[in-house]
């Protein structure tokens, strides 16, 4: 192999022609967006949309300044700053692999305990959008009430020390206070996380925090800032040695490359109080019905990931594609989604829920996308409560099947016990891992111990229909194994389908 080219502005002209690179003058870009949480997904999704717009000669005053609020963000910052915030995106198409260098991010703020650099950057009137990808569980929502968790220690700190906040939201409040005091006007807060009504949730958190320390500022934010809802979609595996090797195959020495599938989708409300890039020119959809797209994606794709990931972990399947290649898991995926979730999801323009299930089946099955089962199973505490439990509640309310969803929850409980069926250990994979493991171990003898975790299930343990199904499936998994439980569920589902077909009335 030829000598690798280190990724930087200085080396862009020497990069092989088979790699697509920025056609715009990065030195002439000026910032317009601060993005908090510069993970792989952001760089493969939002940064890519902006980059493509810049490639066409637009939005050169909307460059991204990256930011983080946790000490671990410093490692990513160091990698990206060393390569001028350039990122290699490797597209994983089953028939070919291609690479593109994205240059829409031009800086990454220093990580500071008091978030002073972030606050000062957000106070700059040139910044018109502050966007976030901080994970589903990062918005300080009480898991039972779904309201702003004002009692959380981080929130209490920020309320008592508003000028030196710990959280991204405290920094946003502090930055907005400076803008108001200096007469610079508001910015738009744009959540890019997988949350239903994510803009409303971001607004709830920012306003809730502001009201704890400065009610007048909260009123100003409420009157002037906008928080559009959005839906984001692209499968982006974690970066490891394989992804670094993929970049090297294109002659690039990139310390933080990103791989991604061929599919992308971004649906937004057009509510931006200080302007926005024309993302619709590169494929984003602006609509008043973001909710419909959110419901389809969260209830089918995100819940679908949880349907298969825990079974995959238990059976030592490394990737989501491996899970989809397993005949029992694949069949369960189709039955649970089509029989138990699709009935409660509405169509969107050009896509029915059943068609969407077929689309995500194809996407999950892509063998070129080595999306690890462990990554998808991470933080079940947020993902099951956000994606799976609403479907269970729909089924219970409407009298539709929930057997498969009860099995999904039993598989999560079995996974959280901490071992696979081959005897290997499952390493910590949830912010509440010790709590979940204790409950899972107790549930081995008394299944309701799992459902009695009220921070996850609320009062579902008292629902006899769901609790009975859950107890059956967890008992079957422990007594006879995961595959036996899957076979039994599929047989029950097949029998129910045949009975329904013979009695259509």
Explain this structure.
- 48% of the residues lie in helices and 11% in strands.
- With 505 residues, it is an alpha/beta fold.
- It has two domains: 5-286, Rossmann fold (3-Layer(aba) Sandwich); 290-502, N-(1-d-carboxylethyl)-l-norvaline Dehydrogenase, domain 2, CATH 1.10.1040.
- The strands form four sheets. A five-stranded parallel sheet has the order 7-4-3-8-9, sandwiched between helices. A four-stranded mixed sheet has the order 2-6-5-12, sandwiched between helices. Strands 10-13-14 form a three-stranded mixed sheet, with helices on one face.
- β5 and β6 form a beta hairpin.
Which terms would index this structure?
505 residues, alpha/beta, Rossmann fold, N-(1-d-carboxylethyl)-l-norvaline Dehydrogenase, domain 2, 2 domains, four-stranded mixed sheet, 14 strands, 48% helix, 11% strand, globular
Q: How far do the termini sit from each other?
A: 68 Å
CATH architecture label name of the largest domain: 3-Layer(aba) Sandwich
The SS-based structural class is alpha/beta
- The outline comes out as globular
Sheet with the most strands: spatial strand order:
7-4-3-8-9
What count of helical segments does DSSP give?
21
Number of strands: 14
Q: Summarize model confidence as the mean pLDDT.
A: 95
Low-confidence stretches: none
Helix content: 40-55%
The CATH topology of the largest domain is Rossmann fold
* Oligomer status: single chain
Radius of gyration: 23 Å
The total domain count is 2
């Amino acid at each position: 192999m030829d000598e690798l080219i280190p990724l930087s502005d200085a080396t862009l002209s020497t990069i092989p022609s088979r790699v697509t690179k920025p056609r715009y003058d990065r030195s002439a870009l000026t910032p317009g967006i601060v993005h908090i949480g510069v993970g792989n997904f952001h760089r493969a999704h939002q940064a890519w949309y902006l980059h493509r717009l810049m490639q066409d000669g637009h939005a050169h005053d909307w460059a991204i300044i990256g930011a983080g609020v946790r000490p671990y963000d410093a490692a990513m910052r160091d990698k990206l700053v060393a390569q001028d915030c350039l990122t290699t995106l490797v597209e994983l198409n089953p028939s070919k692999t291609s690479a593109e260098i994205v240059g829409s991010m031009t800086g990454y703020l220093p990580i500071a305990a008091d978030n002073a650099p972030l606050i000062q950057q957000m106070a700059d009137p040139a910044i018109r959008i502050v966007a976030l990808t901080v994970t589903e569980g990062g918005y300080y929502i009480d898991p039972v009430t779904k309201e702003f968790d004002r009692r959380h220690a981080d929130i209490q700190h920020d309320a008592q020390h508003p000028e030196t906040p710990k959280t991204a939201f405290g920094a946003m409040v502090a930055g907005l206070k400076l803008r108001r005091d200096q007469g610079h006007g508001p910015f738009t807060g744009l959540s890019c996380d997988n949350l239903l009504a994510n803009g409303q949730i971001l607004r709830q958190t920012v306003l809730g925090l502001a009201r704890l320390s400065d009610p007048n500022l909260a009123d100003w934010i409420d009157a002037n800032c906008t928080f559009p809802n959005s839906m984001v979609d692209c499968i982006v595996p974690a970066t490891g040695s394989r992804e670094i090797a993929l970049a090297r195959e294109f002659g690039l020495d990139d310390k933080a490359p990103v791989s991604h599938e061929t599919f992308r989708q971004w649906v937004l409300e057009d509510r931006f109080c200080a302007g926005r890039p024309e993302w619709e020119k590169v494929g984003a959809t602006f609509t008043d019905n973001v909710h419909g797209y959110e419901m389809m994606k969260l209830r089918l794709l995100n819940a679908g990931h949880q349907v298969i990931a825990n079974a995959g972990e238990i059976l030592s399947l490394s990737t989501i594609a491996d899970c989809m290649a397993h005949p029992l898991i694949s069949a369960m995926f189709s039955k649970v989604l089509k029989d138990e979730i699709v009935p409660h999801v509405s169509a969107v323009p050009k896509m029915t829920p059943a068609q969407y299930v077929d689309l995500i089946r194809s996407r999950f099955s892509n063998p070129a996308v080595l999306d690890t089962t462990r990554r998808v199973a991470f933080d079940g505490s947020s993902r099951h409560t956000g994606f799976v439990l609403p479907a269970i509640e729909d089924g219970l309310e409407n009298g539709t099947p929930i057997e498969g969803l009860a099995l999904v929850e039993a598989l999560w409980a079995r996974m959280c016990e901490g071992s696979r069926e081959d005897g290997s250990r499952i390493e910590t994979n949830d912010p509440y891992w010790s709590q979940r493991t204790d409950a899972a171990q107790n549930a081995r003898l008394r299944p309701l111990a799992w459902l009695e975790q009220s921070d996850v299930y609320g009062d579902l343990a008292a629902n006899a229909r769901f609790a009975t199904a859950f107890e059956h499936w967890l008992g079957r998994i422990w007594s006879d194994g995961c595959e036996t439980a899957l076979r039994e569920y599929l047989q029950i589902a097949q029998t129910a389908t045949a009975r329904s077909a013979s009695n259509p009335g």
